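Why do we bother with a discrete structure alphabet at all? Because it lets us treat a fold like text: something you can write down, compare, and reason about line by line. To make this less abstract, here is a complete entry for Metallothionein. Read it the way you would read a sentence in a foreign language you are learning: slowly, and without expecting to understand everything at once.
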Amino acid sequence: MSELKCGCPDCQCDVDPQQVFNHDGEAYCSQACAEQHPNGEPCPAADCHCERSGKNGGPDVDGN
């Protein structure tokens, strides 16, 4: 069985089949990713910083 990747655009995490967060038919690794980090909530994976993509209301980490 192949690994299922999180549907969050910049997330590199695999989705745990025992704890899938579904949103609009996509599978996500966490609720924060499923909601596209509306308030900059971090991904639960310590080495993933997909919340920095700035897609929905996250802080502008590039300073632009």
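What the structure line is telling us, in plain words: Confidence is low (pLDDT under 50) at residues 56-64. The first strand starts at residue 21 and ends at 23.
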